[in-house]
Amino acid sequence: RHYAERMARAEPPAAAYERRVLRSAAEHHYLRVRLELPDGGARPSAAQFKQLVVVALRELHGEVGAALPVDVLVYEEKSLSAILRVISSGLVKLWSALTLQGSYQSRRCAFRVLQTSPFLLALSGNSRELVL
């Protein structure tokens, strides 16, 4: 009887575990994208590029998608690349809309998402393009 009482007291109390899933606390996500136009031709201006992004969102997600706040922070017409800013909750909608966009002014095109990060500074340099 005494042995059983001692063993009961020696057992630690049952541990209570709480599962916590933390989402990124960042308000925005940034994407480095490139538009590929295989047949050449006229290149979109910054305003046309932004309109193409809005059209892609509208075609896939309707008016709710088109209302998603997306900013073109940097656009290089020469390379057709841009850095986009979107609220973090809209990252998947934007990425999917860009991926499925297939035409610009009745010409074939494709968006390539090159990098994405919740930190703009992470997109400022790419170690794969580093020239020593």
Automatic annotation (TrEMBL):
One of its GO terms (cellular component) is multimeric ribonuclease P complex. The keyword tRNA processing applies. One of its GO terms (biological process) is tRNA 5'-leader removal. InterPro entries: Pop5/Rpp14/Rnp2-like, Rnp2-like_sf. GO terms for molecular function: ribonuclease P RNA binding. Keywords: tRNA processing. The keyword tRNA processing applies. It comes from the Eukaryota. Belongs to the eukaryotic/archaeal RNase P protein component 2 family. This is RPP14 protein. It comes from Penelope pileata. The gene is Rpp14.
